[in-house]
Amino acid sequence: GSGDGRGQILQRFPEKDWEDNPFPQGIELFCQPSGWQLFTERNPPTFFVAVLTDINSERHYCACFTFWEAVESAQPQSHPRNGEGEEEEEEPSSPIQPAQLFAPKSLVLVSRLDHAEVFRNSLGLIYTIYVDGLSVSLENVIGNLLTCTIPITGGAQ
């Protein structure tokens, strides 16, 4: 109706909480600070990092990469054809196309480490694999990313 909605977690890794690093509750609220809304135009992808502090004053860096996907309109549209506002049946030669709507979808990486550029690159890789429809399982991609060694800032390569 109004175009406002709520975020929903579609998939997460790991699927269960780790004892020393629980999944941040309500993270979908941080993905779209202005609210989950449908748009009539596809916006360019965005990236930002939010810093969440838990009850133990530990920081969690939540990198968010958002892109927009086309959604199917569930409502058929009909338009008045004459000046009196009466609706007529569509003619087969002039179909009325419903307005295209785009919904935001976010990829989020949560870490205790502050490596924004690594987060951006990792989420960009996942996005590219998703958009290009490559036949690589998301589990394998994430598993490979988690085995990468990131050098300490100022340390040896």
Identify the notable features of this structure and list them briefly.
single chain, 157 residues, alpha+beta, three-stranded antiparallel sheet, 5 strands, 20% helix, uDENN_dom, MTMR5 protein, DENN_Domain_GEFs, Tripartite_DENN
Could you explain how this protein is built, in words?
- This protein is an alpha+beta fold and 157 residues long.
- The chain has a domain at 1-73 and 99-115.
- The protein has helices at residues 27-31, 116-132, 138-146; strands spanning 4-5, 36-37, 46-53, 59-71, 101-111.
- A three-stranded antiparallel β-sheet has the order 3-4-5. A two-stranded antiparallel sheet has the order 1-2.
- The chain is globular, with a radius of gyration of 21 Å.
The number of E-state strands comes to 5
End-to-end separation in angstroms reads 53 Å
Give the mean pLDDT: 80
Q: From the helix content, strand content and strand pairing, which structural class follows? A: alpha+beta
The largest β sheet comes out as: 3 strands, antiparallel
Percent helix? 10-25%
- Continuous helix count: 3
Structure summarized in a few sentences:
With 157 residues, the protein is an alpha+beta fold. It has a domain at 1-73 and 99-115.
Layout of secondary structure:
Blueprint: E1 4-5, H1 27-31, E2 36-37, E3 46-53, E4 59-71, E5 101-111, H2 116-132, H3 138-146
Antiparallel strand pairs: 1-2, 3-4, 4-5
